[in-house]
Structures are given as structure tokens and as C-alpha cells.
Batch of 3 targets.
Target 1
Amino acid sequence: MGQLIIFAIFGVLMYVLLILPQQRRMKEQQALLASLNEGDHVLTTSGIYGNIIEFEGPVLWLEVAKGVEIKVAREAVTGVIGDPADGSSETDTSAKKSRLEKFQESLTGETSGDDDDGDSAADGADNEDAEMEDE
């Protein structure tokens, strides 16, 4: 009889400690997904930040950079970050943009032309060295 009481207490504790908090989280997530609007700045489960631009049933379109849109499942949204119109995320976006531009330049080997030091002879020598290495 004592073992049955211990088993029942263990079952109640498991329910209170594991199942109830999970049900609360699920309700909060469902409320969040129901409250999403176009223009919201959100974070997805994969760590992508973006602005919601369109809903298509269970799918939504996020603008992750100017002119770059991705299609994600609505359930992938983990939170609304804030309103990008308040100015706080503009500086973050410009910093990310400059990092992205630098990364793209490093991949292509091109520069934006801002840092032209007028040393075209040295630039030509670098190109000749690169051509020799290719051969």
C-alpha cells in the first residue's frame, strides 16, 4: 500500500514539474503565432532575424536584408524582437550590412573603390604575382 502512495505522489510530481510548464510554453507560443502581424521584426528557431512581409497560411515571408526574402514556416518564429522603426535596430542593420559587404569583397577580391591609394603600379605587380602563382 505504501508503494502505491509513493508511486501516485511521483506521478503527480512529474505532472506538475514537467507537463504543466510545457503546456504553458505551448500556449504562449500559440498566442505569439496568432499575434504576428506584417512588419513585425522576428527571430526564427534557426537564428534568422527578419521582418514579416507576407503571410501564406502556415508559411510567412521574411525580409532578412534589403531585397532578400525567405520563406519560413510560421511555427519557426520564436519571438517578436521589437519594432525596427524605433531606430534601435537600424544601427545593427547598417553594421551587419557593412560586415556583409566586407565578407563579399573578401570572397570576390574586389574592393568598393573607396580606398584607392593611387598606387596602381603596386596593384599591377600584385596581379602579375597572382598570375605566376596560377601557372
Target 2
Amino acid sequence: MKKSLKVSHFYHLVFSLLMAVSMVACVARTSNQENTGEYMNNSLLTTKVKTQLLAEPSIKSLPITVTSYKSVVQLSGFVESEDQALRAVKITLAVPGVTKVEDHLSVRAKSVAQL
């Protein structure tokens, strides 16, 4: 009787440890995933940057995509000049909370009709 009780406790302990490890694995997240708070902060940061870019007359009509992750903002899309790209980066860096800007903006080539 005592031996079966010890075996039962052993199995119960093993089962409990396996459950604990499983729960930790389910809750754990990798460094490239955002928690809810980070997601909300980055969404707000993206909105602030877009608002500032739209307020700039020389940039507001340009197709610029803004994304952010862990306070790093990525700008992508097309601009008409290098000056517009630099202006977009400067505006983005001035937004509180932005720690870095990744500039993936491309200057459009002028067509023959525009020359």
C-alpha cells in the first residue's frame, strides 16, 4: 500500500511539473513578438507620425507607408526628391517616442513627359 502511494505521488509530481512547463511555454513569447501594451504604443506612435507627415504640405500627398515596432519607425514608399525623403525622416525623428527611423523611401524616376 505504501509503495503504490509513493508511486502515485511521484506520478502526480511528474504530471504537475509537465503541466507547469507546458503553461510556461504557452505564455512565453519570443523577443520579436509584441505584448498588448507594446502593440498599442506602437499603433499610437504610427498614428502620431502619420499625422505629422500629413501636416507637412510637401509630403502629405505622397504614398508613404509608416510602420513601427518597439519604437523604431519604418518609412517606405515613393517620394519625388531626396529632399522630401530627408524631410520625412526629420519629421519622424521629431515625434516623441521615436528612437530610430528606418528609411526605405525611394525617389521616383521622372518620366519623359515630366522632363
Target 3
Amino acid sequence: MIDKKSRRVVIINNIQSDTIDQAIFILKSDKATEPSKSLDRDISLEAQKIIDNYINQVERLKKVQEPFSTRERNRHKPKRPSFFLPVTLTAGFMLAVFFLMIYFG
């Protein structure tokens, strides 16, 4: 299908981000009819702000979600019984039996 309206497209490459490789912006038609150097500069600055805001939001979400997901994982882990309590109870029982054998034996 061919659209008879022409639109200006701005493609930004070489974005310094681990997340974004390329950004494509389609300009609104009312601004696309008046090309000029100042408009091009304004468009580039606005596009860069949009990209920077997106990257900041993604990084903030990663920082917030990572500790939460670790905490959630640890909360659902079954707790292993302590080693100290069974050993102490066994030793106490054995001492009680030993003293009972000496006292009654």
C-alpha cells in the first residue's frame, strides 16, 4: 500500500547506550513542511531528550527491580534447619542418659 502523504523521518544512529541501537522518529506533518537548520537542530535536541529520558527510565527500573526480585527469590526459599539446635539437643539427651545411668546404675 502506498501512502500519498510524505513524512519526514529522523533516524538517529550511534546512540551511546547498551539498550538502544537506533532511534527512528516520524515528525508530525505540520512541522515537516518547513525545513530549516534551526528546526533540524531543535528536532535533534528534542529527539536526544526523548532518548535520554527513556534510557534513564529503563536504568531506574533496573535498579528498583533487581533488589526486589532478589528479595522475592530469597523470601520463597525454604529455610534449612539450623545445625546447632539438633546437635545441642542430641548432646543434652546423651548427657542426661549418661548421668541417669551413673545415678541409677
